[in-house]
Amino acid sequence: TENRHSVVSRQCPNKECSNQLPSHTISEFDTKKIIFETLQENGYPKQLINKMWLRANNTTIDDPPAADVTVGENETPKQYFSLSYVPDLSERIRKTIAKFTPNITLSFKTHNTTERLFSQLKDKISLLDHTNVIYKLSCSCGLGYVGRTSRKLGQRISEHVRSLKDTTRVSSSLVGHCREHRTHSFDFDNPKILSQTRFSRHLNVMEMFFIRLQQTGLVNDRQEGSSLSPYYSPVIWQSSRDVVVPNG
C-alpha cells in the first residue's frame, strides 16, 4: 500500500511541486480510487463500495474528481460499517480504509454463531419418526386415505400393512377400499404429513377437518368427518378453493 506522500507525488510528478504540498493533503478522488481498487480486487462488489462511500461522503466512486481536501479527524462525522469477516483480507481492508478514510470505521462479523453451529449438529427427524400427525396415503387409483396417529408415523403405517393381511376384519376405510378393489394398492413408502400438533387431544378434530376438506378425493367413510362442528364450514370452504383433488 502506498503512503500518502507517494499518492500525492503521482498526481504531481514534478518534485518541486510535490514538495510544496503539505503531506496531509490528498486528492479525494485519488482516495476513492485507491479504496475502490483495493476492495474490488478482493472481491467486494462495486455497488457495495459506492454505497459505503455515499453514506460517508455523500458522493460515489464514479463522481468526477473533486478539489484537494484536507482530511481531518473532526471535519466529518464518524461512519460505522459491518462486513463479513474473511481471515487476512479483512485486516488489510481495515488498514487501507483507516489510512485513506479515517472517518470510516469498519467492524467485522462472523456467521458461525453458536446457534448456527449447534443447529448444524442436530440430526433431522425422519419423516416416519414424527408423532402427533395427520397423514395421507395415496392409492394407485388416484384417491387417498387420511388418518391420524399420536405415535410415530412409521408405527402406524406398519399397522396398516399388517391389517391388510388380516382377512378376518376391516379395521379402517383403507382396508375396506383394498378389499373392495383387489387390484388397488396404497403407497406406504411415501406418506405425506398434512399437519402436526403438540397435543394429541387435537388430532381428532384435525383429522375430521382434513377429511371434510378433501372428502371427494378420499376413500375415507363420509361419516368420519360428519361430526365436525358447522362453525368450521367457512374455513373448509375457503381452504378447499386451493386444494387440487385427484381424479380416481
If you had to describe this structure to a student in words, what would you say it looks like?
The protein has 248 residues and is of the alpha+beta class. It is 40% helix and 13% strand. It folds into 2 domains: 4-112, no CATH class; 127-240. A 3-stranded antiparallel β-sheet has the order 6-5-7, covered by helices on one side. It has a two-stranded antiparallel sheet with strand order 1-2. Strands 3-4 form a two-stranded parallel sheet. It is rod-shaped and about 95 Å long. The N and C termini lie far apart (74 Å). The model is unreliable at 1-25, 64-73 and 240-248 (pLDDT under 50). This is Putative isoform a marinus. It comes from Lutzomyia longipalpis.
Descriptive key words:
single chain; 248 residues; alpha+beta; three-stranded antiparallel β-sheet; two-stranded antiparallel ribbon; 40% helix; disordered N terminus; disordered C terminus
Give the topology.
Blueprint: H1 4-11, H2 15-20, E1 25-26, H3 28-41, H4 46-57, E2 69-70, E3 79-84, H5 89-100, E4 104-109, H6 114-121, E5 133-138, E6 144-149, H7 153-165, H8 173-180, E7 192-196, H9 203-213, H10 233-240
The termini sit apart by: 74 Å
Q: Tell me the major beta sheet.
A: 3 strands, antiparallel
Mean pLDDT: 73
**Order of the strands making up the biggest sheet:** 6-5-7
Instruction: Output the structural class.
Output: alpha+beta
